[in-house]
Design a protein that fits this description.
It contains one helix and ten strands. It is mainly beta. The chain is elongated. The N and C termini lie far apart (51 Å).
Length: 218
């Protein structure tokens, strides 16, 4: 059996990805973080063996649709700390992906394609001006961690009560006015972080959550 192929170009001041990278079609992990990248070639879609891709800490405003061809991505996709306002619809094809980090971008709505990533276990979308979480969030039936710190949510959809595997939800620093009571019915919830959240009225069922062992940070 051949050895896994990894390429780590972290913080190399590339400015642009060398064309030779796209020719390494047997790569399993590719790290291009912190390289002042402003674009990614559509040729990235040829790297069909990738399990992990890190494009974080760059200056990307858009991503190629061909990124959705990487249906072998299963471990991690890091897109944090860029200038993305949305994601290609094709990313809904990443059905095996377990970890997605889109924190620190410019998204006002959680892209619908994220809700198509049905194997997600952890979703990090903090530090975005998000105001809308789509009702289709219910499709993330395997989700265990949802990180929404420093977003702009005033409300969460009732569909969140369908996330039966959810263990942790981070809502620190959001302008939440209301929490859906369905949260109290999530059987595996272990941690709710509400620090720096000033709701008009704290729901009484938070006490019931704590009574059953869930940690609630206020």
């Amino acid at each position: 059996m051949s050895e896994p192929r990894h390429l780590n170009l972290w913080k190399q001041r590339l400015g642009r990805v060398p064309e030779s990278v796209w020719e390494q079609i047997d790569l399993e992990t590719l790290v291009l973080a912190d390289n002042d990248l402003t674009e990614v070639s559509a040729r990235i879609g040829h790297l069909k063996c990738l399990r992990m891709l890190d494009l974080g800490h760059n200056d990307l405003q858009a991503l190629p649709e061909s990124l959705g061809n990487l249906d072998g991505l299963s471990d991690f996709l890091y897109l944090h700390d860029n200038r993305l306002i949305s994601l290609p619809a094709s990313l809904a094809r990443l059905k095996r992906l377990r970890y997605l980090n889109i924190s620190g971008n410019l998204m006002e709505t959680l892209p619908e394609c994220v809700c198509g990533m049905r194997s997600l276990i952890e979703l990090r979308a903090s530090d975005n001006p998000l105001t809308i979480l789509p009702d289709s969030i219910w499709q993330l039936a395997s989700l265990r961690e949802l990180h929404l710190r420093n977003t702009k949510f005033k409300y969460l959809p009732d569909a969140i009560m369908e996330l039966q595997e959810l263990r942790q939800i981070d809502l620190r620093g959001t302008p939440l006015e209301y929490l859906p009571p369905g949260l109290a019915k999530l059987p595996r919830l272990e941690k709710v972080d509400l620090r720096w959240v000033n709701m008009r009225e704290e729901p009484g069922w938070l006490t019931a959550l704590e009574a059953r062992g869930c940690v609630v940070y206020r």
